[in-house]
Amino acid sequence: MKVGLFVTCLVDVHRPSIGFAALKLLEHAGCEVVVPASQTCCGQPGYNSGARDISKTLARKVLAEFKDCDYVVAPSGSCSGQMKVHAAEDLFKGEPEEAAFQALAAKWFELSDFLVNVLKVESVPGRCSDTLTYHDSCSGLRELGVKQQPRALLAQAGATIAEMNDSEKCCGFGGTFSIKLGDISTRMAENKCVNIGVTGAKVLVGGDLGCLLNIEGRLRRNGDTTTRVVHWAEVVAGVNQYSESADGRR
Fold first, then answer.
1. pLDDT for the residue 245
2. Which CATH number fits domain 2-118: 1.20.120, 3.40.50, 3.30.70, 1.10.40?
3. In the prediction, which pLDDT does 246 show?
4. What is the layout of strands, in order, in the sheet containing 160-161?
């Protein structure tokens, strides 16, 4: 099974360890993983800003890079939603390329959804004894139905999840939303930080790096220098600060 890994812009630039975690999890599950070196952006920023021609150009590039893969997987509900929902159902609707993008959408999955519902993994390489709290990102939750999948994988790694109040509420990032409506975005992030603190968990986990960077930035501005903010894949794969392998070695 040839699986294309779409790394995402934010992961590539800000936290490559998430990409390596995704690679480790896919290979651990027996996949042949392809990571096109030329990949860049899914086109979502342009789409959200009304620059549809730019978004289309980038979407076509993604299609060309991953057309020969059996599946395409991304450690992001946001980018996955862009390709599975917006590119297929809006950007190219009624155009000659519509069928090609529908075919791409059918084989594109958010990482946790792919591991749980397609590969049906029953073991993961990472081990974690921490108590975590989980933030559900808007795109993954509302566009793709990603909710229990990452939690199931975290449980396989041994993590305990202390659910926060309003875990499904937006953190205020929303891509260009946080720029256009900064005051509202800041208040939403503040509310999220309060809810994290109430749980007593020292680790915040999520599935979209944009949300995690937004929340971490607010935590640090509030003087919280101890709460760790990580992608669930880093925990489940045992990378970054979760570098303990399944056999206990580091």
1. 38
2. 3.40.50
3. 35
4. 160-161, 131-135, 203-206, 228-231
